[in-house]
Amino acid sequence: MNQNNAEITHLLNKSNIDQNTWDDILPLVYKQLKAMAHNIKSNHRKDDFLNTTSLVHEAFIKIQKNSKLNLSGTKHFYHVAALAMRQIITDTARAKLTAKRKAIEHSLDGDDVIELSDKKSNSITEILEIDKALDALKEVSPRLADIVTYHFFAGYSFVEVANLMDISESTVIRDWKKARAWLFSSLQ
Amino acid sequence: MILKIIENYDHVVKFKQMNSNKYNWKIIEKIYEQALALKPEDRNQYVKKQADGNTNIYNQVVNMLKIEDNDEFMSGIPNEITTEALNKQFDMSRIGHFEIITKIASGGMGVVYKAQSKLSDVKTTVALKTIRVELKNDDLESRFLNEKTILSKLKHKNIASLIDAGVSNDGVPYIATEWVDGDNIMAYCDKNKLGLKSRLELFLQLCSAVSHAHNQFIIHRDIKPANILIDNNDQVKLLDFGIAKLVEDDNLNNTQTQIFTPEYAAPEQINGKPCGVVTDVYAMGVLLFEMLTAEKRFNLDNLSLPERIQTICKPTVINASTAIKKSQHPIRSNKLKGALNIIINKAMHVDENRRYETIAILQSDISRYLSDLPITAIKDSWFYRVKMFLKRNMIASILTSLLFVSLTVGLIYSIHQTQLVRQEALKSQQLYEFYKGSYNSAAPVEGGDTTISAREMFINGAQNFDLNKISDLYVRAQIASDIARVLSEFEAYDLEKEFLTHALDFYTENMSHYPTEFLHTSIIRSVVEQNSGNSEQAILILSQAYKKSLAFDVLIQKRTEALINLGLFNKTLYKTDLALDYYNQAEVLALQVKDYASIAKVNYYKYSLLVETEDNDVLEKMLQTAQINFEKAYQSNNHPDLLSVKNSKAMWYTTLGEYEKANETFINLDESYRAFYGVLSYPQNINHANVHYYLGNFEHAIKLTTSALDRMDELKIKPGFKHMAAKIIQARALTELKDYQSAEYLFQQAYEYFNEILPSTHIAMLTLNTYRMDHYLKSGDFSKALELSQEMDSLAESQLIETASTKTRYVNIMLTLANLNSAVNQHPKALNYYLKANEVMQSNTKKQGWIYWVIQAGIEKSHYKLKNGYNDKQFKLATKNLYAILHQDNWYTQFFDLDL
Predict the structure, then answer these.
(1) Does residue B717 share a domain with residue B800?
(2) Which of A41, A87, A132 is the closest to B90 by Cβ?
């Protein structure tokens, strides 16, 4: 078992996982995910589509193989992995937006302006806004916020989210709708 | 990085209409759920009624309900972003500043790409190797940078050079090396149907590459055909030096990580034991087997792990000559019988101790074979027995390696100069005789050699060795100086002198042919005198020899060495002006040939010579020059004696009071010694112990001095300054640990020894008395301390200040006097001494170890006692730091534990 995994396992197996522990685990899992993605990508053709869920699962299997994660450890892992994925996606969206703004600043004709206001750019902005609003939602209802992180950012299915949170699938679906409505309202 | 971003979330932009009040949310949630159950057209009305005039609640619920008309919102992250996120975060088109051209291979360690540097306009093609991140731990980046510095020093025509190494922004570690186009060595041999001679010549190229790296203390650890390419100019290029070590996980032994390739891994590697030079020797043996037979030495394909381990570690000998299977193989099996079988089997011997000690010796045996000379491997059993004997006697394999290497150096470069080769062969023949004679006289019966020490064995052997039977006079002189070198290791000076005289007689007669050898031997001869305490005689011998040598074409580095030694000898006699003059001459010569190590050493010596008399600016400049040149010497890859450079650097840091750095350098030096020679050097242990003392690591200091003293006992070295230095450091450390009785005993021994050979005004005597005084003060024997101090007070005030050759020594004396005066409530005097100590220490450097804080605390304590300008904050800082460094039960804890 390598040190990174050992450290993750150690942290995940702590009986009381508080905010500080999460802060310690997140960078480790993030690193792990990157490593996984790196290796997965290098063994795939470039145009292969690699989705976020398969990435997280792959990372999990790697870690699990080397450690004896118990059930609660497993859940912690998926939780942390989802946070990491949210981070990765918003980072990229932000970088992409900045890049576009820069491109416009440097461009003399107006083509890029049109591009910024197109649908895709809207979606990028939207992701960033959702990300911000999600923090506010967490204040209001941590459970709803978790569901959004799991389903929206990490791409876990409703069944997976239900297992992860020990609630029924129908509750997850109902809460998902509610969370989505709340976020929608925040962005108005 | 992530934590930083998370922090940013704390400054979340405030959203309009957003209300994070949990109480409100409960109401909103309820209204929303109920409204949702209604028909769309009735909802607004219902919400208005329930909100009861609260516009926040009303607006939020209404806005939430609007989502029902919007299927698109959050229907998934656009494909563009996820793909982009993954591509960007895990960008595989670029790593660091390299652009990937194509993937070459993917293996246990990571993936190899052909890539191009985008840093400069000239596009350099490289082989880029990424390392699996999972293997790594957190200090990855610093470790990579560290290795990068080491590996970038490897410049050899047969080693693919390192271009860059680091960690990309995505956290992917990579190593970029020179791109080599060509087949691997096995494929190349096969394709070109090379004969025996050509294959061996390729192998020799490879040997010189590995040997070069070993001289820089870099072990390959993964030598195998896949790592050896032959480029378009038919040059061998060895890849991936040091990478196996880089990716090795510190927490694991090798069996679990399996970075090496099992077919070429030595048993010690398989067993997770430390790797050394002989690990590479083993792999080279396997490689040679395969190159000559075109067959695999081990077939591990269908074996389980335990079976593999057994196959590699069990001592079965397969002769290469019997392994050739292919009928069209260009080498006939009877060619491999005899010498080559022996060479291969010795190189890949299961027992590390029975392999070739170095690649250079393996290389020389191949060369010998090619020149039809007898190979050394045949003497296997002899070497083995002598070597095991030396090991049992705890003698430095330093010594053995030194000699074993000396058998072969020179031969390799002069393989075509028949006369030289003959002389070398004769020389090694005679050295065997010397060994054999020494060993036989010591251990006539097999196994009966346990009672005699190596020192006795070699002295005996040297006494019985008949130089006159060597007819070739040049070889005779060389043998004489080699044996002298062995004897100097045991401080057997009289006998050493005899042998040196033999050598010198010959070189003096043949000055025009061997002027460098002449000067070299003269230096050794003069050092014997210096070490025996006859500095005048040493100066006489060396200055005459130096003058004589001026008429001839002598290697400049030797001249520099002679001048530096003359400076050192004169310094011992306090002839400062003369010493300085020699140092300056040496510096001029060293500058001429860019001999950085000597420039650094000279400046370091000049610094210690002038430390009491020169201006700070001048001293500072010397230190800087020393620093810069030490670095250069360190980095230049062809300095013949890296260990001595490292050693001087460590000593230099010690003088400076940079104890942390000195400690690091010593540790690094220890590693080099251990990796190469298997043992540590005892003089170095003593110097290292001194550093530990100033760092407050008293237990370490005691441990190191004890092991140094044990070693000297084992070597039966008669008590001398080195013994005393070790005892004094140990005694001082014992005093700090409050073992006053043991300390007293050691101090007494040192005092008696010094008293016999030194005048009472000698600097070493004064220093020793300072330490004794400190000891008496701390052990509570005030009367003895005061007695000593009265004797020293006047000395310290007058001549001591001028002659204390380093600041550290001066500070120690002042500090002891200060502590003593403080303890007997002579506070004005105490303050005076503390301030003097402080002044010199401040002019030195910033890092000072615990002594610095003692002085600071002492000054404030005196101020307090004298009721003038006491600074409580400064005192608290000083005592706090002091207690942090020292043992909590230390004497100073009570001394400064005042109710101020």
Answers:
(1) yes
(2) A41
Token pair recorded at residue B197: 């001679």
Which amino acid is it at B300?
L
Confidence of residue B395 (pLDDT cuts 50, 70, 90): very low
Minimum distance, in Å, between the CA of residue A186 and any CA atom of chain B: 6
B79 Cα to chain A: minimum distance (Å) = 9
- Whether residue B652 sits in one domain with residue B685: no
A chain contacts of residue B76, beta-carbon cutoff 8 Å: 152
Looking at the structure, tell me whether residues B126 and B204 fall in a common domain: no
Does any domain span residue B420?
Answer: no
Residue B329 lies in a domain: yes
CA dihedral sign, ordered A176, A182, A187, B3? negative
Query: How much is the average pLDDT of A22-46?
Result: 55
User: Is the pLDDT reported for residue B447 higher than 50?
Assistant: no
Residue type at B473 in one-letter notation = L
Domain housing B334: 184-370
Count the neighbouring beta carbons within 10 Å of the beta carbon of residue A27: 18
Among B638, B654, B669, the domain boundary falls at: B669
The single residue listed with the structure tokens 């695999």 is B296
* B contact test, residue of A185, A186, A187 with most B CBs within 10 A: A185
Q: For residue B37, what are its two tokens?
A: 């159950």
* Domain limit, last residue, from B648, B669, B690: B669
- Asked if B132 and A35 come within 8 Å (Cβ–Cβ), the reply is yes
Q: Which range has the worst mean pLDDT, A29-33, B39-43, B200-204, B500-504?
A: A29-33
The pLDDT of residue A113 is: 41
Q: What is the pLDDT of residues B811-844, one digit of tens each?
A: 888 888 888 888 888 888 888 889 888 887 776 5
One domain for residues B868 and B738 = yes
**How many domains would you assign to chain B?**
5
Is B437 exposed, middle or buried (CB count within 10 Å of its CB: 0-12, 13-18, 19+)? middle
CA distance B711 to chain A (A): 39
- Residues in chain A with CB shorter than 8 Å from the CB of B79 are 49
**What is the torsion angle, in degrees rounded to the nearest 10, for the CA atoms of residue B54, residue B56, residue B61 and residue B64?**
170
Residue B547: inside a domain, yes or no?
no
- Cα B194 to Cα B197: distance, rounded to the nearest angstrom: 8
**Size of chain A in residues:** 188
The answer to whether residues B156 and B212 belong to one domain is: no
In a domain, B408, yes or no: no
Share of chain B above pLDDT 70, in %: 73
A89 interfaces chain B, CB cutoff of 8 Å? yes
pLDDT digits (tens, 9 = 90+) for B246-301: 555 443 333 334 456 788 888 888 877 777 788 999 999 999 999 999 888 888 87
Residues B140 and B224 in one domain: no
Question: What's phi and psi for B300, nearest 5 deg?
Answer: -110, 5
Site of tokens 């970088």: A95
ipTM score assigned to the predicted complex:
0.74
Q: Which domains does chain A have, with CATH numbers?
A: 1-92 (no CATH), 118-188 (1.10.10.10)
Decide if B587 contacts B556 (C-beta within 8 A). no
Q: Say whether both B741 and B695 belong to one domain.
A: yes
